[in-house]
Amino acid sequence: MIPGFSTARRRFSDLSEQEILALAISSEEDDARIYRSYAARLRDDYPDSAKVFDGMAGEEDDHRRRLIELHRRRFGETIPLIRREHVAGYYARKPVWLSETLTLDQMRGEAEAMESQAEAFYRQAAQRATDAGTRKLLGDLAAAEAGHGHTAGKLEQEHLTDEARATEDDKRRRQFVLTWVQPGLAGLMDGSVSTLAPIFATAFATQNTWTTFLVGLAASIGAGISMGFTEAASDDGQISGRGSPVKRGFASGVMTTVGGLGHALPYLIADFWTATTVAIIVVFVELWAIVWIQNRFMETPFLRATFQVVLGGALVFAAGALIGSG
Predict the structure, then answer these.
(1) What are phi and psi of 11, to 5 degrees?
(2) pLDDT of res. 240
(3) How far apart are the C-alpha atoms of 254 and 259, rounded to whole Å?
């Protein structure tokens, strides 16, 4: 153990009423800070939801002020320094910096969980308390936390009208498409179509399933790495609004590899014609999956998507088969 530092944490049952009150004050401060970080993150893209979190932070501030006044009346001006991490078994909060990775729905869910955890903890603590004053204090804190949930509902009704929620939902859907679906679809198309020629050319030229599998594996992984880095380096997302280049590169790279491996894996089957038949079936499924994704998320007309993808894939497959047969 490092001199001057201790890993031991206090048990809640060992805290005095003053320390419990100080813990409640610091917890309210932390929760208000978390809600404000959510609001700041959402301000530009989801201003109405940002107002909801601003309002919830204001409620936490109000409870903190009331708790401080109570502490001042009972124990004086000096508030003991005690935080969640100092108490064993006390509910924890995720670091504020993790809000950078949360979606709007995840933030809403996290806020709901925060209030629920705090209420449940205070109620359980109140049931275990033997001192009447401590029991009353913990019960009041539980009621305050339960009231936060009602406040959140009122704030959502005030700021999130049906029109505002529809606008935010539409914006969130567009962001999902730009960050994940579009690069993932581009990768799936590239992996599924561009690897057809080398895989089937090798298959018909050698009629060796293991060699074909190795060529397909190399082509799929190589294409995935290339597409992933290309997507990540092509646009930082700041101006285009397409989102994190890391997420886009990951989606593109993984789906490119998956698209190629789909019709490479059947060549693990020893019999050539069985493997080739299964690979052709997989290609058919892949191409129609691409058509469905284009129609579902990119709003591409079904017939046009079918013509572009299925015809293009058939031509690449035919080229590979003819080259391999020759």
Answers:
(1) -85, 145
(2) 58
(3) 9
Query: Whose CA is closest to 249, among 235, 238, 261, 239?
Result: 235
Residue 10 sits at φ, ψ, to 5 deg, of -70, 145
**Considering only CA atoms, which of 149, 125, 152 is closest in space to residue 51?**
152
Buried residues in 256-270 as b, exposed as e (16+ CB within 10 A): bbbbbbbbbbbbebe
Q: What angle do CA 94, 34, 8 make, to 5 degrees?
A: 45
In whole angstroms, give the CA distance from residue 144 to residue 59.
10
Report how far apart, in Å, the C-alpha atoms of 204 and of each of 194, 207, 246, 255, 316 are. Answer: 17, 5, 38, 26, 14
Query: Tokens 């590979």 sit at which residue?
Result: 320
Confirm if 116 and 125 have CB atoms less than 8 A apart: no
Q: Which domains are present in the chain? A: 10-160 (1.20.1260.10), 172-325 (no CATH)
pTM (two decimals) = 0.56
Q: Say which DSSP state 91 is in.
A: P
- Provide the percentage of residues in the chain whose pLDDT is more than 70: 83
How many C-alpha atoms does 308 have within 13 Å on its Cβ side? 12
Six token digits for residue 268: 């693990």
The whole-angstrom separation of Cα 63 and Cα 58 is 9
pLDDT, tens digit (0-9, with 9 covering 90-100), for 185-211? 888 888 888 888 899 999 999 999 999
